[in-house]
Request: fold
Amino acid sequence: MKIRSIHKLNEQIRNYLCSFLTVFITSLLFSLMLFFWMIDKDINERTDTWSSYFATRIEFIESIIHSKYPLNHGIITMIRINPDGRIINSRPHLANEENISKTPLYKSIHKFKPGQIGLIKNGDENGDHRETLYMVKRLDSSFVIAELSSETLLPVIPHKTELFIFDKNNNCIFHTADTYKLRKDKIRMIMFSSMRIFASSKIKVYKAGSFTVSAVKNISAEFYGATLFMLLALAAVVAILKRSNRLTWDLAGTEDDFIRIKKLLANVSMMPGKKLKHLPAIEYAAEKIRQVDWKAEADKMSFMENKEYILTTSFFAGNILQLLDEISAHSNKLAASRHEYRDLVQRAHSIILRIDLDGRCSFFNEYAESFFGFSQEEIVGKKIVGTLIQKTENGNSKLEKMIKDITAYPEINQVSTNQNIRKNGSLVWVHWTNSPVYDENGHTVEVLSIGTDITERKMVEEELFRTKNYIRNIIDSMPSVIIGVNSSGEIVHFNSKAEDSSIIPSNELLGKKVSTAFPLLKKYSARIYKAIETEVPEIEIRAQLPSAEQQFQDIMIYPLTGDVKGAVIRIDDATERARIEDIMIQTEKMMSVGGLAAGMAHEINNPLGGILQGIQNIVRRFSPDLDSNRKAAKKVGCDIDSVLAYVEERKILQTIDGITESGVRAAEIVSRMLEFSRKSDSSKTLNDIKTLMDKSIDLATQDYNPNKKYDFKQITINKSYADNLSSALCSATEIEQVFLNLLRNSAQAMYDWAEMKDHPKIDISIKNLGEIIKCTVSDNGPGMTKDIRKRAFEPFYTTKDPGYGTGLGLSVSYFIITQNHKGSLSVESSPERGTTFTIMIPAVSS
Reply:
């Protein structure tokens, strides 16, 4: 008996089906092509026939219009016109018009050449939409125009075929009934309209101006019949394929069932490659049977018979497995225990080792081998110290003592973290858990140590610690007060400057309200909360400290970005910045007033010179020593001596002297104004600032006038001059003038202060400050208010009574220092705390 394969049978059936499908599709395509060829042939024949009829009819009409026979054969009227459109004659009736040059017909034919014939379709001029056909022929000197009826173009009207005739401009000049309304559409080879199918064909007729004849045939019955036939054929083929495919699927499912059964039985009965003893062989077979899910395998079968076969096999396999389990029960328990121990110790992702009481390693698991790089032979039996722990010369290192303690007292030293060494010399951090191992009598014989690698965690902790310290050092190194607060205004971070500024000890700052620890911020609490909520920084806050000296602080509030709500508060000392801003404002004022002062000085100087010169002339006119004066007095009939006696009696000369003194004083004011408004042109030399200060003090001491309210000799002068003081390139007279102005201002201020209780004194200090010489002149007088201090250097500003000051002393001094010597002049003062003027001028090194 010949053995056959289900798989090959299934493959043959599929091949037969593919061949059948190929033949069917080929036949179907051939039938479709034949169908369209027949349709095309039929419509082409119809089109050729009607185009021949049309050409013959055109030739016939052309011969009629040449003859003189009575009109017939569809010609309605015939006229002859000259080239200008004037009608020459007409028949059978006289024409209603004499000229047609304005009509659309004439516009269509006036360019015809002699011998040219054309068939033209035109609308009626009277406005109705009826269209008329004309046959026109151009003679040598005239046109012949014949009006035709549409039926004239063809001898008979076709049936079951729509006929369309188009001129060369694609205008339809004739069509049949057009039952299906095809005339408006463009004629195509295959057309669809009103659920009908049409086939068409076109032929050119080169008669009377070239025409296109299109015949259209309704092929709906043929098309739908062919379509129905193909659909039925396809449905039959699909049904055959579906049934055949289901058969092949069944055959394939049967083949797959047999293959699965074969693999299943082969897998269960297959023995290992190497020879096993009886018990391992039994265990191996039992394990193979146990691995099979017989119910799942039965559910995979495609046919009932195969499923019952698998279930029967599973029954016998279960009985065999039960027998094997009873035989190897005890062995399996031992093997399971052995596997559990191996999985726990050897495959655990932890370092596991045992140490005897002498410090030698008695067990080293696989992970420990891979971690430390030592093999079992290299570590087992060796001491831990010298292998996993670095050995020292005296053996008293911390780790060596710890190992001794662990082996001596394992119950006490259960947890430790230390640095170990690998075989390659690299150091690692390991966290150890130690527990004693007892013998049968309860005595400790070994120590079981389980270690976890924490090197990476240690490195991360150290890096975080270093980063934290680095950031902390950066923040602590800043000269600003830095305070971090949460959304509730509680302090969560602060730097060393904040510790110094807080009224609460540093160990109690965390968690405190920022307004409690820093009272200065209490009135800005609302702005702190606003910055946190809106995430918009508050940076333009300047606060004045409630102290004797004028001190200012800039407060900036920066909200935190991200998910954490809070803010960073930065406080900077702005005292120096405020002073510089005041100086800048003062400088701008002085520069703006400088031009005004110069103009005023020049304007005042001219009439002032005239006044002083006139006073001199008046005094000379009273002089008896001049002959011209005596002659003038004698001429008017008086004695010069009598005039002088009268002048002296009325004290006119004393009055003139007073005017002269006032004029000289005004001249001095003008001179100071000019000095105020321009740089000095005096030469600069190297000078010792100490010497210039001493000269100024001598001048101030000699400046005694009973009219003045102070005596400089009664003021205590304290001088503090630094050794090795640098020289300065300056104008000695100008610097002396500045020093003298400052000394006079201090003296006048102290003596004008009625409430002064202490003895008046002036402290003078001169020292080097890098490449700058710093000079300070301080007194214990009444000091200045904030408003007065800001205007101290303004021209003409004075707090003295009228007649005792011009207000130009400090302003001139300011310009001498800042403009002529590129230095700075500033003032620090508080009410009842005295005043300190500070001069900074560049020094000249040796």
Residues 124-129 have pLDDT under 50 and may be disordered.
